[in-house]
């Protein structure tokens, strides 16, 4: 009986500790607030594919007019457009003219949005 009580206590302690590290359950804004809007998967795909700015809902949330249908792109499609590490051909800041921005593909501290430093 003691072992069973001890096991239950440990399980409860672990569950409570896990809950302490969970994110907030509160919405970022009320449904009628435009700040609660998110980009669609299609918007993310188009940004990666061709630089499109993306569009969020501008008014209050509205129920869809039709049942869900097939989407145009999957998460696999999105990942196929996302940049990948390239330590061989990926540019470094010293490879790009000073002041020009570029997306660094290397994983040596130059991943992400970078600004060139080359002076000539």
Strand content: 5-15%
In which range does the helix fraction lie? 25-40%
Largest sheet: 2 strands, antiparallel
Distance between the termini: 78 Å
State Rg: 23 Å
Number of strands: 2
Structural class: alpha+beta
Q: What's the order of the H and E elements? A: HHHEE
Note the overall shape. Answer: extended
Strand order of the largest sheet: 1-2
Q: How would you classify the quaternary structure?
A: single chain
Mean pLDDT: 84
Number of helices: 3
Number of spatially distinct domains: 2
What low-confidence regions span 5 or more consecutive residues with pLDDT below 50?
Answer: none
Structural overview:
By secondary structure, this protein is α+β, with helices and mostly antiparallel strands. Helix content is 30%, strand content 8%. The protein folds into 2 domains: 24-82, no CATH class; 83-120, no CATH class. It is extended, with a radius of gyration of 23 Å.
Please give a quick description of this structure.
The protein is an alpha+beta fold and 120 residues long. The protein has helices at residues 2-20, 41-50, 75-81, and strands spanning 101-105, 111-115.
